[in-house]
Structures
1.
Amino acid sequence: MATHQCNFTERNLDMWVRETLDDWKAHADNIPQSGEAWALDRGGRASVPGLRIRLRLRKDTDGWSLHDPIVAFYLFKKVNGKLANRFLGDRKTTGVDEARTAVTGLIKQLQQGADPKVERRKAAEVQRLQSLSYRQALERYLTKA
């Protein structure tokens, strides 16, 4: 299925989700194997390259469930030679303007070499290592040596 392109507004996104779900409901064979569809932010003055929205169906015992799909914003863009694919927020809690602001800020951070995803992982690893007891640290050291 081709990726849909539109000017992201609240109304356009609601209409795209509704039309896609109606099409899948009427023609179940149109549902992609991955159970998801993407739309790109294109066309408007405020559009941001790299901002996408994903409509994803939940897996059911009989196949895909059209009830309560997951709709979320993503950054999907090449920055500094690397492909950045980051979750920005759920459509229920994040508006179009918030997603555009988040994408712009995230792209600036990535261009400066600061990746929040990597920094969170490093912080979690530091926290995990700091929570080790002396005995656990000694056992870990002895098993590696």
2.
Amino acid sequence: MLPIFHRQRECIGCESCVEISPNYFRMNKDGLAELIESTKVEEPYIHAQGFEEDRESLTEAAAACPVHIILLDRP
């Protein structure tokens, strides 16, 4: 499994992660991206697990984030 770390409170709602990795991110009612299946919250990060075969799209989503709040493996 591939650890995903997301600092949701810093999200600006650009939707790039949702467009690139819709199996892991969605927009919430406040217009901010969130991890679909978070496993725990450890401020400032929300954690989730991804599949290794999705590393490429998750890496692309992290790189496309204009505020750099998506990290893979470790913060």
3.
Amino acid sequence: MNILFLCNKNPYPEKDGGCLCMNVFIKEAVRRGWYVKVLAVNSKKNFVNAVDIPEEYRGKTHYENVFMDMTVKPWSFLATYLNGRSPHITRFISVEYKKRLVEILKETKFDVVRIESIFMMPYIDTVREYSDAIVDLRTHNVENLIWKRLRNAAANPVKKLLYDHVASTLEKYELNVIHAPDCISAISEIDAEWFREKLQDKPRFQLHPLDFVKSSGKHPVKVSVVPFGLDIQNISLHEDIMPEPDSLFYIGAMNWIPNQEGVEWFLTHVWPLVHQKMPQLKFYVAGRNMPQSLIDSHPENVVVVGEVDDAHEFMRSKGIMIVPLLSGSGVRVKIIEGLSMSKAIVTTSVGAEGISVADGHDIMIADKPEEMAASIVGLAENPALVKNIETHAFETAQRYDVRSIFSNWLEFIGRS
């Protein structure tokens, strides 16, 4: 079978959870002997020169990317207040990308076109015009919910106003375009229920003509949970790497606003309580695009690492994993990675959302600063509890084997 992936950013290299989520499916399709074609968006934020990608991977995926200027310009953002369009969606509209997509669809007959995220939905009409493939929308999040949570948490009235505009225009777009694909592969049951509920209603908003997307008209849109998967069979625990004693760590892309918000909250409200109880603990903060303010000034015993060469090696070299997420949607890929590496993880209810975990069994969940600090101290003082959590974490990770997830997905889209 032939499958085309339309990616909202470069899935290779796997620099963050979104890249990993896309690439693990791409690699599984290759492993199964499918003809795979990747057409990705290239940008300054996630720039990759296609010729720098390993030749073997590029050959097996027929990898291409098209550069788009994703910079948010004040005047173009302001224009969206006047025309009612989503500033996040309009950034992904490119004449060059559409032109190359048309050429690809004319060259090859595809059985499945997988649209990675709502941001690539402006191209569904082009796909329909030049292909009769099954169109599967892979939703990594319910995008408008992320911005609603950010709006609700914002104390700055200007930020609240900006977040409200982003949330409302994204919601308007999402509620219309979810009627257009054949299938929606939601990353969690919570997200799937949102899509099922909204699909019962007809589109309620009048979109800008450039954003209008026709329904397929074939049949009602199917929705299923297609969770994030890992190639569990090829994950090594690297038992030769001993975690640093008395260490905590965070790792995540710091150009994603919910990650910035969560780390700032943790350092301001949780870390002082932890440090007071156990001053010997060190907290390592790693990730791309680390804010200069955090690099320049941070609390005692907090080590700002920045981007690391090997995320998995870094994770294995440290002790307790901290995921202090306050807003977001979908699932936190790094948590599933941490589970697969037998890590004891402390997170929030939002962080654990959509993942089959239970507080005190395979993860620790706490939403208030005092509760999270107590969970961290409780783990740091009790190696037996850490070991118990780690054992159950690895067992839970087996549910996220990409090979079984991919097989279930094929049944769902009718291509098994």
